[in-house]
Design a protein that fits this description.
Radius of gyration: 22 Å
CATH architecture of the largest domain: 2-Layer Sandwich
Strand order of the largest sheet: 5-6-7-2-13-12
Largest sheet: 6 strands, mixed
Distance between the termini: 66 Å
CATH class of the largest domain: Alpha Beta
CATH superfamily of the largest domain: Nonribosomal peptide synthetase, condensation domain
Structural class: alpha+beta
Strand content: 15-25%
Shape: globular
Number of strands: 15
Number of domains: 2
Oligomer: single chain
Helix content: 25-40%
Order of helices and strands: EHEHEEEHEEHHHEHHEEHHHEEEEEH
């Protein structure tokens, strides 16, 4: 590898990589799929997967920190890659949703091993009489929600017949690694050139734009600087995760929109509010006068005619965020939806996401040493303002298969946002369904099933009002 060829993490991906070093914030994302038929063996899946990895070379690479942290980590080829080390299988002790939930929680709670490529698959047999499950986890520094969907269309098949024949597994030839000297030289060069590029890219075209971004940043600081000292949703977390999910027909969302208005995201967040109101009440918190402060990631990617963010072949994180303050104490479902829609609409008219993006770009100027030390120090200061993250990602528009077996349901999971938040919610669309996946810190929020049940109840309430019941 030459200095010019170094494949370096973005500043946002490096943030996810460094954050994990505290031992409790496992920064992998992933999901699960329920699949019809009999489960294949781990070897069969590995054989089918191997030829597809040529299309995603990142999945043969490891993240290598730069000596002396002179720059952000670089991606280098693993010296020896064995796909069978990334695919394993298990059988549930009993065929039940509770047993599946326990297995997924265990899988999510285990960090990825940094000495090999940062991804793993788990085959779970005996989910019920007709289904098995495939779960996956991928480090957040490798993928975001949109590129994750793009990845699924590579790993899985769009037709019952596999897109490529299985490969006979053989020992892989060792690959030549980049020298430390080349990586250091590349890091110094990138630091100098990157500083120049970043300063130029964030230089506003007009004083008006600078003023708007500055106002948005000050508003963001004002919104997040005052702590919520008594909420069980914020505070320190442990290494173990709780997880549950609920499935909502997309037809229900369409019916609610037709009767009450709002966007898909408005309906989603309104239902999520009902779920969090339920879990806070279960924990003895009075929600009167309280709000949920939720980070809503925004994909920084091209969009299609329907406004869906498009994958661009790059397996990295390309996102900014909006931070919405949404009331928890509105009992009337229709008024709750209107309030959410109004607040999100007002938020989109600000440049809050531009301010967050500018912060990320400025971070790119810092040497890896400064970034790593700052993140470690920041992780010791518990923020108590951001309650959760709600990520709504469009899934594949076609039916997917695993070795000829049809995938019926896909759900996602994401880690709680590091440094204070104890939960996260993902929303994923596939085959006419929206699957809400709720992840929590098991020590403090073990009852994420209460959130899942509350979300489903929130949808039912909106449906009843839209039907005039």
């Amino acid at each position: 590898m030459t200095a010019a060829a170094a494949d370096r993490m973005s500043s946002l991906d490096a943030f996810f990589f460094y954050t994990e070093e505290d031992g409790v914030n496992h920064m992998h994302v992933g999901g699960f799929a329920l699949v019809e038929g009999a489960a294949p063996t781990a070897i069969e899946v590995a054989q089918a997967l191997l030829p597809k990895l040529d299309r995603i070379p990142r999945y043969r690479q490891i993240a290598q920190p730069v000596p002396l942290h002179l720059g952000r980590p670089v991606w280098v080829d693993a010296s020896q890659f064995d796909v069978t080390r990334h695919v394993r299988s298990t059988v549930l002790p009993e065929s039940s949703r509770a047993a599946l939930r326990t297995e997924l929680e265990t899988f999510i709670s285990q960090p990825l091993e940094r000495t090999r490529p940062l991804w793993e698959l788990l085959l779970i047999d005996a989910v019920d009489a007709d289904h098995w499950c495939i779960a996956w986890k991928i480090h957040h520094s490798m993928v975001d929600g949109v590129s994750g969907t793009e990845l699924l269309t590579i790993l899985f098949d769009s037709a019952p017949s596999p897109s490529s024949p299985p490969t006979v597994l053989r020992a892989q030839e060792p690959r030549k690694l980049a020298s430390k000297q080349a990586i250091v030289l590349s890091s110094v060069t990138d630091l100098v050139l990157g500083a120049s590029r970043t300063v130029h890219s964030i230089r506003p075209a007009t004083a008006r734009k600078l003023s708007r971004v500055g106002q948005a940043y000050l508003g963001l600081v004002k919104q997040t600087i005052f702590p919520d000292l008594h909420s069980p949703l914020v505070g320190n977390i442990g290494p173990e995760r709780s997880y549950d999910y609920c499935v909502v027909p997309f037809a229900d969302i369409k019916e609610i929109r037709a009767g009450l208005g709002g966007t898909v995201n408005d309906v989603v967040l309104t239902a999520v509010l009902k779920g969090f109101s339920a879990v806070l009440t279960a924990h003895g918190t009075n929600v009167s006068g309280k709000s949920l402060q939720a980070m809503v990631p925004v994909a920084l990617r091209p969009r299609d005619a329907q406004g869906r963010p498009l994958g661009d072949g790059t397996m990295e994180t390309k996102a900014s965020a909006l931070i919405a303050k949404l009331p928890l104490d509105i009992d009337d479902p229709a008024r709750r939806l209107r309030t959410v829609a109004e607040r999100l609409s007002a938020l989109k008219d600000t440049t809050q996401s531009e301010a967050i993006t500018a912060i990320n770009e400025m971070t790119a100027l810092l040497p890896g040493t400064v970034t790593s030390v700052a993140l470690r120090a920041f992780s010791k200061v518990p923020q108590r303002s951001l309650h959760t993250t709600v990520t709504n990602v469009p899934g594949p528009t076609m039916t997917l298969y695993v070795l000829g077996r049809r995938i019926t349901t896909i759900g996602n999971y994401a880690p709680p946002f590091p440094i204070g938040a104890r939960t996260s919610v993902t929303v994923y669309s596939y085959e006419g369904q929206l699957v809400f996946g709720i992840t929590g810190d098991k020590a403090s929020i073990p009852d994420v099933d209460v959130i899942a049940t509350g979300i489903r109840r929130g949808i039912d309430e909106l449906l009843a009002v839209s039907r005039g019941q």
